[in-house]
Amino acid sequence: MKDEFILYPSSLIIMYHISREIDFCYGHRLLNYRGKCCHLHGHNGKVVITLEGTELNSSGMVLDFGHIRKVVGQWIDDHLDHQMILSRDDPAVPLLQELGEPMYLMDANPTAENIAKLIFDFVAGQGFPVVEVRFWETPHCLATYCPDKPAGGIMRSPQE
Ligand SMILES: [Zn+2]
Question: Is residue 1 part of a domain?
Fold first, then answer.
């Protein structure tokens, strides 16, 4: 039997992925959890944001790495870096607020998984073609958030 090849229009094939790494320090603690992370403590976190593209811009890029750093890095610097990332339900929040400690409050437990999703949602909200966010809580512990979506970005239904 002969091999059959199906040719797709090149505009539908994701041919480029680019990734930008950003480091930041943060504190947190986990609710509903027994283990070291149930106490206030800190991590040196690392996030790698991956974007995709079907074609390159006139500069030969999916997106300028410097632009990703400028937009996403600035948001991380302003909201997550050197902050206590806590659940809104954490009983430590009122006390830390009283002490004037900087905090970033989440609706979810501040696990590596939820921080990866938090960053993904911010990047997607900026209109960047993000496909995956990998977040290292420690050099040995990695969470990846990569929701399924149609190739090439947002696909609208015929009703829209
Ligand atoms: Zn921890």
Answer: no
What digits encode the pLDDT tens for the residues 2-47?
A: 556 555 555 567 789 999 999 999 999 999 998 888 999 999 999 9
Is 137 part of the annotated catalytic residue set?
yes
**Going by C-beta distance under 8 Å and a sequence separation of 6 or more, which residues neighbour residue 87?**
31, 105, 106, 107, 108, 109, 110
Is position 140 annotated as part of the catalytic site? no
Q: Output the pTM of the full model.
A: 0.84
Q: In the chain, where does DSSP find H-type helix?
A: 65-68, 74-79, 92-98, 112-125
User: Does the annotation mark 17 as catalytic?
Assistant: no
Gap from CA of 154 to ligand 1 centroid (Å): 34
Q: Structure tokens of 12?
A: 């539908």
The answer to whether residue 151 sits within a structural domain is no
Which range marks the domain in which residue 138 is found? 13-145
With respect to residue 160, please indicate whether it lies within any of the assigned structural domains: no
How many angstroms does the Cα of residue 46 sit away from the middle of ligand 1? 13
CATH number for 34:
3.30.479.10
Residue 157 is assigned to a structural domain of this protein: no
**Residue 146: partners with Cβ closer than 8 Å, 6 or more residues away:** 120, 131, 132, 133
Q: How many domains does the chain have?
A: 1
